[in-house]
Amino acid sequence: MIRLHATPHVLLLEKEGIVAKAGPDFTIDTLFSSTDPVALATAAFHAGAPAKLPGSGEKISAVISHQEIWAAGVTYLRSKSARMAESKDAGGGTFYDRVYEADRPEIFFKGTPHRVAPPGGHVRIRSDSKWNVPEPELTLAISGHGKIFGYTIGNDMSSRDIEGENPLYLPQAKVYDLSTAIGPCLVITNDLPASTTAIAIEILRAGTTMFAGQTTLASLKRSLPSLAEWLYRDNSFPVGCYLMTGTGVVPPDSFTLHSGDEMRITIEPVGTLVNTVL
Question: How far is residue 41's CA from residue 11's CA, in Å, rounded to a whole number?
Answer without folding.
Answer: 11
